[in-house]
TrEMBL record:
SMART domains: PBPb. It holds the Pfam family SBP_bac_3. The keyword Translocase does not apply. The keyword Signal applies. Residues 20-235 form the Solute-binding protein family 3/N-terminal domain. This is Transporter substrate-binding domain-containing protein. Keywords: Signal. It comes from the Bacteria.
Length: 237
């Protein structure tokens, strides 16, 4: 791909230096990160980290890892950053440091059209979620809910369509994209997700300097219109 962006396999342990930032993404989460028709990484996060890398003068390599494996890969040193529509939560802060938030969303509850499921009768229902997400944690807090995790949101959506689950709980920015593509589904409830928004994660206590540089770059990209232009491209405004 372009000078500041490359897709490579996860391999030997990497240490962040002045030139390279190894970023983990779960590329099954459009419009934030996905593999496009040309078999290349695409999405809001992909273009934003490229813009950030130019601002701070580092090369970025992208590593496609399942979402629930991102923080373990970070802690093991296989990558040195995670940017994958990851919400900054108190629980995650126990093991990682986050940059400032760059995007905020909510928890979206989706059902099949014509269903009688509503916010008052969720108890005992099967709720499809993506493994390792804030939404999985939120579903587990619903009294009587039977949580059915999938490796990705598409799996949860397909489970809803064929009746394996009654509800899908998903990040709203992702959920609305699936609703546009599936006229047989609809939202019925939206709630705060309890996080500070999507942020870039680093191993705890190890990358204070680079976090400061990224925070400054985010401010500059928002001020000069680059951030909004990328968001508009992926229908995230």
């Amino acid at each position: 791909m372009r000078k500041f962006l490359a897709l490579v396999a996860v391999g030997l342990l990497g240490v962040l230096n002045a030139q390279t930032l190894k970023v983990g993404m779960s590329m099954d989460y459009p419009p934030f990160e996905f593999i496009n028709d040309q078999a290349k990484p695409s999405g809001f996060d992909v273009e934003l980290i490229e813009a950030i890398s130019k601002k701070i003068g580092v090369e970025v390599t992208l590593h496609n890892i399942s979402f629930d494996g991102l923080i373990p890969a970070l802690k093991a040193g296989k990558i040195n950053a995670v940017m994958s529509a990851m919400s900054a939560t108190d629980d995650r802060r126990k093991s990682v440091d986050f940059t400032d938030s760059y995007y905020a969303t909510e928890n979206l509850f989706i059902r099949k059209k014509g269903s009688d499921i509503n916010e008052n009768n969720i108890k005992g229902k099967k709720i499809g979620v993506q493994l390792g997400t804030v939404q999985e944690a939120a579903a587990n807090m619903i009294e009587g809910a039977k949580v059915v995790p999938s490796d990705n949101i598409l799996g949860a959506i397909m489970g809803l369509k064929v009746g394996k689950v009654d509800i899908v709980l998903v990040d709203s920015s992702i959920g609305y994209g699936y609703l546009k593509q599936n006229s047989d589904l609809e939202e019925f409830l939206k709630l705060p997700d309890g996080s500070e928004g999507f942020s870039i994660a680093f191993d705890k206590g190890k990358q204070t300097e680079i976090i400061g540089k990224i925070n400054k770059a985010l401010e500059e990209l928002k001020a000069d219109g680059t951030f909004d232009a990328i968001a508009k491209k992926y229908d995230l405004q």
